[in-house]
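Lab notebook, bench 4. Still working through the backlog of constructs that have no structural model yet. Next entry is a single chain of 518 residues. Request: give me the structure tokens for it.
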Amino acid sequence: MSNKNIKIIEPRRQEILSAYNPQIRVCAYCRVSTDSSKQHTSYLAQADYYTKYISEHSEWSLVDIYADESSGTKLKNRDGFNKMISECEKNNIDLIITKSITRFARNTIDSIETIRKLKSLGIAVYFEKENINTMSEQSEQMLTILSSIAQGESESISTNVRWGIEKRFRDGTYIPSCVAYGYTKNEDNEIEIEPQQAEIIKRIFTEYLSGKGTYLIAKGLNDDNIKPIRKAKIWRDNVIQEILKNQIYKGDMLLQKTYTTQNLPFTKKKNNGEKAQYLVQNNHQAIVSQEDFDKVQEIMSYRSKKTISNNYEFSGKIKCSECGDTFRRQKIYIGTPYEAVQWCCKTHISNKSKCKLKAIRENELKHSFVNMWNRLISNYENILYPLLDSLEQLNLEDNKTQLETIENQIKDIKEQSRVLSEVAQKGYIDSALYISEQTRLNIEIERLKKQKENLIKDSEYKNDIENTKQIIKLIENNYTLIDRYEKVIFKKLIETLHISDSEIIFELINGLKLTEKR
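Model written out:
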């Protein structure tokens, strides 16, 4: 056998890169305190630090320094972060440097998803505090564990903060950071009346007591060019309703109207009985009397019951196809032989230049419904039964996909548990944190197993399937053509009406949309 001569041909791209030897394009990402007294100096200090840090590496070139405002665990906005990611997608950045995992993203999920996205683009992230480069082996498992620990610490801090706030709720010492319209805070941080705004509050209560509705009150304020609350563009009837119901205007303070969720990402929710509320009576000077406030509540309660008893079946169901707003009921030609009811887009009523869709007579809506119903029952077997079969098939397929996803999540967590043990053995975290994190992972596995059990019993398409069956039953129980509008059938069948200049789209309770020409 002759001796073989093997010549290695180096990759052409590597040869070009070696000859060119371009610099690594580096940026820094930092978070700036929202404290106005520290914000400017905080940014300058970090900008100066990263500029020097990057210049010390001859093979690096500085692209930019991106920053976002932050308050504790909460990012006020993501403009800097999103701009940085956009530049990465344009292939203008090779490496991102940031202080630590906790300063990079809002929570563990955010952090891991962003890192995976950047890795797919060939872009590394270097975390100084943890000394982790995301392009290194095992980096993702380490990041997942460390991010989870950091998230747990943030949630613990948040719990302590909430406990402190609730303590001030209980002893009546809590002062809101932002007081209601009509009030301000003095130098001693005490709530006091803001005279000009207080006059508007008195006007709102007086007009309501004189018989005006919230819509007309809001319209009057807009017509008089009264500046609306905070950043709102105009006064709206729902804002007037909230003012009329707010106990602050009779001198009382109702605390914990909203609450913040315990886990990241922290979100604020309306307190509908999930948490205790605290009523501090005679907390500050009142703008309206107790008597006037109570009268307003009585009138609002009466009008609410009256509206329910009138039971306009179209209320809240009609959507404008042009601007997306809902429709309001109107009576026209009142007291004449031509008196009629029509429905009109709220945006069109307040500003015709923003929505040009004209009102539609209620009789036209009813006539269109009659036509839609008659066409539906004439063809329901060809429409609803195939739809039901499709939904049930999708239900099976959807469950299968979700079950596979849960199984993969369980496998990932078990792998995290394994890596956590290795990290603890190498001394990266102490035993207390190890036990805490291992417990959290075990709890998460149990939660996923429970979710898997529930998924087998339930599904995303369950409501659509049940509603489709309900429509079939409704049709078969009322299997007849109709020559006039049937209110009971409409209320059981229709979820929403979408109105445009040329058509009315009836959206049924199962999501099916049927169109009638105008």
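Notes after review: Residues 138 and 395 are 37 Å apart (CA to CA). The first strand starts at residue 24 and ends at 33. Flag for follow-up if needed.
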